[in-house]
Structure formats: C-alpha cells, structure tokens
Design goal:
mainly beta, 2% helix, flat, Transl_elong_fac_P/YeiP, Rib_uL2_dom2
Length: 187
C-alpha cells in the first residue's frame, strides 16, 4: 500500500532501499525556505541497523502490511521458544534472543501476537502488563517512606524492578513489560 511521505507514523513497516524498515521516530519539519518534509528514523527489521531519511510530502513509500496471528507460548527448549498458532495448532520455534530481555516475561499459556511477513516472523508482541510475584525486596529503612522513594526488587522471573517501599516479598504486583516498571499491586 503506497502512502505519502508525510503520513509515515512510528511503528509503520516500510519497504525502502530493498529492505524492510520500521519507523522508530518521525518529526515533521517546515523550513523557512523550501517544501516541508518528514524526518524519519528507520530501523532495519532483521539487521537492526538504523538510518535517518527525509521524505517529502510528494514522495510515496510502500507501507508493508504484516500478518498478525494469535499464538500461545508453550515452553522454552534451550535457546528456542515454542509457540502454538491458536487457529491451526501448528508450532513455531523462535530463538530467545529474537525477543530479547522481554522473553523473561513469557509465562506458560500466555497469549502473544506474532507479526510475520511472507511467513517469516518479524516481531512478537507481549501483553503490556503481567502479574508477577516479588521474590526479593530490600527492607524499608525507617524515615525513608516520607519521600516518594522506590526500592529495588527482584521478580520471580529474575527481572529487577523498582517498587514502592510498602511492597514486600511474596506479594503479587503488575509490571509493565515495555518499560520494566511497577504499575500497581495485583488484585
């Protein structure tokens, strides 16, 4: 699908210079002299290299539509993560480093969205928030609670998150998987 250069938004996947690129940041610039343009920071989908490009409003670029399918996380086998398609029940193996640090948030039976292009997986979207149990947390220092201070805590999956002082070991909390931050106590 062709779109104009000024319609590019962060998250769009574009076919550019013979490869697939994801728009990371966009800013629209209107110089005092000359036509307006969009300054777009692109990241190559598979290689991870970055590129800054200018697209004029009159230019057109090819926006790629990705297939989005619901998958369920089954288990990890060594460095591979195994997912099952919710419609066809086919299994898909993806390397752990493909997801990166966020792979620690995968839980048995978790629903994820796998984006693919021509049958090749390009990205895995985890739920924005997950509920985890606090495995380790520092003790509260007397007098420290007056200011809004946070203390480090280690979740059951080994991820470190800064939590409010009233959170203790064994409590369940909701964690943002994108920012790796504390959201609230679990109900």
């Amino acid at each position: 699908m062709k779109i104009n250069g000024n319609e590019i938004r962060p998250g769009n996947v574009l076919e550019h210079k013979g490869g697939l690129w994801v728009a990371v940041k966009t800013s629209h610039v209107k110089p005092g002299k000359g036509p307006a343009y969009a300054q777009v920071e692109l990241k190559h989908v598979t290689e991870g290299t970055k590129l800054n490009e200018r697209f004029r409003a009159s230019e057109t670029v090819e926006r790629v539509r990705l297939e989005q399918n619901d998958y369920q996380f089954l288990y990890s086998e060594g460095e591979m993560l195994v997912f099952m398609d919710m419609e066809t029940y086919e299994q898909l193996e993806i390397p752990r480093d493909f997801i990166g640090d966020r792979a620690a948030f995968l839980q048995d039976g978790m629903q994820v969205m796998v984006e693919s292009y021509e049958g090749k997986p390009l990205g895995v979207s985890l739920p924005d928030q997950v509920t985890l149990e606090v495995a380790e947390a520092d003790a509260v220092v007397k007098g420290q609670t007056a200011a809004s201070s946070y203390k480090p805590a280690v979740m059951e999956n080994g991820v470190r998150v800064m939590v409010p002082p009233f959170i203790s070991v064994g409590e369940k909390i909701v964690v943002d998987t994108n920012e790796l931050t504390y959201v609230k106590r679990a109900d």
